[in-house]
Hints:
Blueprint: E1 8-13, H1 21-36, E2 41-46, H2 57-68, H3 78-85, E3 88-92, H4 102-111, E4 118-120, E5 127-129, E6 135-142, H5 156-166, E7 171-178, H6 185-205
Parallel strand pairs: 1-2, 1-3, 3-6, 6-7
Antiparallel strand pairs: 4-5
Helix pairs in contact: 1-6
The protein binds flavin mononucleotide (FMN).
The site of flavin mononucleotide (FMN) has 17 residues, from helix 1 and strand 6.
Amino acid sequence: xxxxxxxxxxxxxxxxxxxxxxxxxxxxxxxxxxxxxxxxxxxxxxxxxxxxxxxxxxxxxxxxxxxxxxxxxxxxxxxxxxxxxxxxxxxxxxxxxxxxxxxxxxxxxxxxxxxxxxxxxxxxxxxxxxxxxxxxxxxxxxxxxxxxxxxxxxxxxxxxxxxxxxxxxxxxxxxxxxxxxxxxxxxxxxxxxxxxxxxxxxxxxx
Length: 206
Ligand SMILES: Cc1cc2nc3c(=O)[nH]c(=O)nc-3n(C[C@H](O)[C@H](O)[C@H](O)COP(=O)(O)O)c2cc1C
């Protein structure tokens, strides 16, 4: 009998605070996704609980040597393989310093492995993405407002859009609530409700 392979969604939790609003969006998305796609696998990686290291010193040398030898099957590139193999990807992270917390950047360093998530020698940049996912959704909340005149200062959604393209993921979307540290509580609650509804709809239509 032919073995059925169910699509796998990778959810990357880059939230830091205990009562994270961004994680609320992620949880709304995940619950709606599980309801709408009960057969699919939902694989969640919580960055604050993982022990990723920045690629410096001996780690850098070690990774570079492995890449040079094409030895990409070890634990060093496990996160890259996990990211490359997912059918869809959701990343949730709040805005910190105009982009996202450093743990997310560390994660990006860890998944960026030539021969796993991208290849050299093709494409406009000299690299071409080789991830399986068709879609990447970025969920975020921002203390201030970045949809008006300050839109040029918003770097988190912008970076994930570029990374989706770099990794060969054709469809990108961002769902956000902003002004979370600026507006009165009732208004923030309203923005959060709207963002959660959008996240649920995105999950159902995934
Ligand atoms: C360390 C840190 C850095 C932040 N940097 C920004 C920023 O650059 N711009 C902004 O609008 N809000 C910033 N904020 C506010 C958060 O984006 C906002 O409170 C967000 O809703 C927090 O999401 P969370 O509840 O998921 O942690 C920052 C908050 C923290 C704790």
